[in-house]
User: Fold these one by one.
Assistant:
Number 1:
Amino acid sequence: MNGSFKRHITAIGLVAVALWTAGCGGSTNTSSTSTDKGPIQVWTMEDSPSFTALMQDFTKQTGIQVQVEAVPWGNVNDKLTTAVASGNGPDLMQVGLSLLPSFESAGALLDLSPYVKDHPGLQSSTYVGAVASDKINPSGKVLSVPWVSDVRVLFYRSDILGAAGISSPPTTWTQFHDDAAKLAQRGKGKYGYYIPQWDSALPIEFTWEAGGKVLQNGKVTFDTPEFRAAADFYISFYRDKLVPTASDFDQTQGFISGSAPMVISGPYLAAGIKSTAPQLDGKWNVALLPRNQAGTSLFAGSNMGVWAKSKHVGASLRLLDYLAQANAQLNWFKTTNELPTAKTALADPTLTSDPMVKIYTNQLQDAQLLPLVPKWDKISQAMLDSLNSIVLKGSDETSTLATLNATVSSLQT
Amino acid sequence: MTATAARHEAPARRFAFRTPWRRSTLVPYFLVGPALLCLLTFSVLSIFVAAVVSLTNLDISGLADYGQVRFIGLQNYQSMFGDPAFWEALGNTAFFVLIGVPTLVIGSLAIAIALNFSRSRFFRALRAFYFVPAITAIVAISLIWGNLYNSQFGLLNWLLSTVGAAPVAWLTDPTIAKFSVAFVAIWRGSGLDIIIFLAALQAIPPEYYEAAAVDGADEWQKIFLITVPLMRFAIFFVTVTTLINWMQFFDEPYVLTQGGPVHATTSMSYYIYQQGFRYDEFGFASAASIVLFVIIGVVTALQLRNRRNADV
C-alpha cells in the first residue's frame, strides 16, 4: 500500500513530461528493401520459447536475426503506454484483436498498404474471411495482419454427460440450459456449466446467437431485444444455480475435476487439458456452440503489426511473409494449439484429419469479431459489471440494464 | 605526535572561526538540498503536472501525438462526479479506512505492549514473527492468501469443511471480500506499526514504573496511566501514517481481487489505476488523483491542527 499511489501520480506526471519532450525526435524508416538483415525485435504474448524456436527456422532461411521478448497479457497495455510515450518499441509486435483499436489510436502501427503488392503475407486473400483486411483495419489502411485465430466452441465431458443420461452435446439454447440443469443435480459443488466472470465476450456471443448485432451505425448499443434475450439467458444460469458464483473458480481445474462439465472456450483449453490431464483422453470432446437464431461464436486471436518507428521494416515484412506460410502456421499449431489464420494452413490434411480441429474450423465459418471501437474495453466492462451485479448482488435487471444503456451512450458521445 | 596533530588541526579551526556565518547558514541547505530536489521533482512537480493534465483530455492518442491534447476545463471532474463507480470507490475507501486504521493502531499497540513484557529469547522470536509480513513481498503474500482464500481448493474452506461448516466465498462475495482484503492489509501493516510502538515503549524511563509500583499501582493502571499517555506522540505518528496509507489503499485489491467482485473492493487508488492504465484516460485519472490528494491533505491537516490544539 505504501507509496504505490505516489508511484502512479508520478507515472502520470512523467508521462506528461515525456509528452512535452517527445516532440523533438524524428522518425525515419531507414530501410524497406530485401537487403535488410535486421536484427529485428519481436514482442509476442507469452510463450516466447516456442516463438524463439520458430524463429530459428526463419533465421536459417533468411539470415535475419530475431530477438523475441514475451509480454504477459496483463502487461500489454502498460508496455504499449511506455513504448508510445518513449518512442522505443519493437519492430514487430503481436497485437490481440481486442487491443487493436487502442494501438491504432496511439498511432503505434505502421500503415503497410504500400507494401501489400509484393508481400503475400499482407494480402487479404491469404487469410480466412472473418479477419480479412477490411474487417480489422480502418478504411484503406493495413495496420496489422492476422497471425493466430481463436474460436470459441463448447467443451463437454462426454463421460459425465453420458452418466447423466445425455447422449449428445446440446445443440440448442433450450437443450443447453436443460442439460446444465440435469448436470447440476449431481450434488453439492457440481455444476452444469461455468461462466467466467471476466469474460465480456460471452454476452456478445449470446446476442449474436439471438440474432442481434452489437454494433449499429458505428456505435455499440445494448438497447436491443436481442441483447435483452442474451442477458436473460446469461442470468438464467445463475438464477437456476447451474454455474459457480465464485469469481476465482478455475475453468481448467473445474473441467478436469468434472465440477463444471461444460464450458465454452477456445482451442488453447484443449492444449491445457491434454497436458495437465492426459488420463481424461477420450472422456471429453468439443462441439459447435448451441444455437438460438444462430450459432455464432467469437472470433478472437491476434495479429502482427509493424511498429510505426521501426528501422527494420524490410526485415519485418519478410518475417510477416514467413509467418503467413502454411509451414510456420502449422508448426505453431503443433506447439501451442493456436489455430492458423492462413487458408492454406487451415486446409492442410494434418488439420482437417483431426476431428476436434474440424469442429474448430467449422465453427470458424460462423464466427464474428468483437466491435473494434476505441472505447470497447470500457463499454464491455460496464456491460459485464451490470450483468454481474444482477447475478451476484441481486440488482434489478430492468433498471440496471437501463442504467447501462445510458452509460454506454454517454461513453460514445 | 601531539604537536603535529595540533598543528594540523589549527588551520581548520581558524577557518571555522573565520567563517562562522557562512558555514552555519549554508551547510544545512547543502545537506537538505538533494532530498529537497528529489521531493520537488518527483512529488511537487508531478502533483503540479497531474493538476494540469487533469484539465486536459490526454489519452493514448494524445500521448502519441500531443497535437491532439486539448484543454477541456473541469469536464473530467464533472464526468467523474457523475460516475457511480467513483462514489463507490470513495465509499469503499472510507470503509477500508474505518475498518483498517482503528484495528491496526489499537491492535498494534496492544501487541507491542504485550511483547514488551519480556526480553526472553521466546519474545524476541515473537517480535521477528510479527515483523515478517511487513518485509514479505506483496506478490508472495497475494499468492499465499489467494490460495488460502480460494473457494475451490483453499485451505480455509477445507478447514471449515473438516468441522462440517459450509464453505465461505472469501474473495468472491461482494461483502465478505471487503473484509478478507482488509484483513490481509491489516496483517501486513501490523509489523511496521508494532516496531514503532516497541521503540517508543522502550524509551519510557523505568523509574516511572518503579515509582508506580511503590505507590501500589497494578499492571492495568501502569498501562493506562503511564504507558499510554507517554506514548501519545507515537500513537499520533502511527495514526497519521496509517491513515494516509489506508486512504491510498491499493496493493491488496490489486493482487487479490482486481477490485472485484463487481467493484466491491475497488479503492480510490485502484479506481485511478484502472482509469489511467487500463482505459488509458490519463486526464481523467489525474483528476481523480487530485481529488484523492486533496482529501488526504485535508484529513492530515485536520489531524495536525487537532494535535496543536490539544497541545501535547
Number 2:
Amino acid sequence: MEDVVTSDAVTSDAVTNDTVTSDVLTIAGTRLGSRLLLGTGGFPSLELMAEAIAASGSELVTVALRRVDPTARGSLVDVLADAGVRLLPNTAGCHTARDAVMTARMAREAFGTDWVKLEVIGDEDTLLPDAPELLRAAEELLEDGFVVLPYTTDDPVLARRLADLGCAAVMPLGSPIGSGMGIRNPYNIALIREAVDVPVVLDAGIGTASDAALAMELGCDAVMAASAISRAQDPVAMARAMRAAVSAGRLAHGAGRIPRRHYATPSTPEEGRAEFA
Amino acid sequence: MIVVNGQDSDVRAGETVAAVLVRMGLDAGARGVAVAVDGEVVPRADWSSYAVPEGAHVEVLTAMQGG
C-alpha cells in the first residue's frame, strides 16, 4: 500500500521543499523549508504521526499543553524531537485572554520556545475566535516578548489589527476547525493577503488537497493542516498529498493564472485554416 | 491540603516542586513539562528549591497532541 503511493506519478520535483527553489517562508526571521504547518492532534498513534510528519515535509508542528496523564504511553516531546521539527505550542481550549497568556507562559517554560499559536475561542460549537480577547492576549504576549501567530477569523480588518500590534504572522480560518469545509470566503483570504505585510497562514477548515492548493493560489504564504491529515483514512498518503498541493498552489500563484472569461477563447489560431470547398 | 491537577493529593506543605513531580512518576527535571503554583509559573530552575505552600493549587502540564 505504502509503496504504491510512493511510486505514484508525483515526481520528487513536485513535492520538493521550497528550500531547493529558494522560495523560503520566513516567520519572525526564522527560515522554514516547508510552507505546510502540521497539527499533531487527532493521529491514532505517535508512530503514524511521526510517519505523517516525515511525509509532509513540515518543519513546524503544533502541540497543545494539558495536565500530565500518568497513564499516557510514549512521549510526544521525544517523538517530535526525533522528527527534528520546531514546536509551535498552541493555546487551544482557552476562552479568555488571561487563560491564553498563562498557557503561553507555561508552554514557553515547557518547550523553551517563545513562539505561540494564539487561540482564544469565543464559541463552543463553532470554535470561532473571540476577537476582543484575542487582541488583548496578543498585546500582552507581545509585550512579554512572545512571537505570536494568532488564529483569527477571515476578517481583513481584524487581521490588520493583529499585524499592526506586531504579530509575526496571521492565521485566518478557511472554515471552522475540523469542519473540512475548505475556504468559505476566498475573497476575504485574498483581501487579508493584501491587508498585512506579515505571512498569512491559512488555518482551519482544510478538508483535502485542493483546499490547500486554493489557499496558496489565493496568495497565502503557508497552510496549516491538522484533522485533514490526522483523521484521513490514510494520514501518511494525505500528508504527501498536502505537501504536493501546497507546492503546486505556490507555483501556480507565482505563475499567474489566466483571467476568467464567460466565453471560449481558442488557443489555436484562426489564421491559416483550410477552406474545403 | 494541596491540590495537584485538580485532585486532592498527599503532597505536604513544604515539599518542593521537584518532589511533587517525582510523586507523579516524572523525573525531577522532566523535559516538556511546566509547573504553575497558584496561577504563577514556577521556572524550571526553581523546581528543586520552590516549596509548595499549604492550600496550594499546583498545575503540572505537558505536551499533548493538538492542532
